[in-house]
Write a structure and sequence with these properties.
The protein has 57 residues and is mainly alpha-helical. 60% of the residues lie in helices and 0% in strands. The radius of gyration is 13 Å and the shape is elongated.
């Protein structure tokens, strides 16, 4: 299995971790911060495994 790590995957994973672990970020919308952080981490892991989610412009 070939793992392709590019800059976008790194930024996606790091951004998700920042959203999950930064305690003072978006205090009032904590549920939205957790939701977006988890989605970013899941998308980053899927991209690492070579599974990309197609989207429509």
């Amino acid at each position: 299995m070939h793992i392709n790590i590019n800059l976008l995957v790194i930024f996606t994973l790091v951004g998700g971790l920042i959203l999950l672990l930064w305690p003072k970020l978006y205090e009032r919308l904590k549920w939205l911060r957790y939701l977006v952080g988890v989605v970013l981490i899941v998308l980053g892991i899927l991209a690492l495994l070579g599974i990309y989610i197609p989207y429509i412009n």
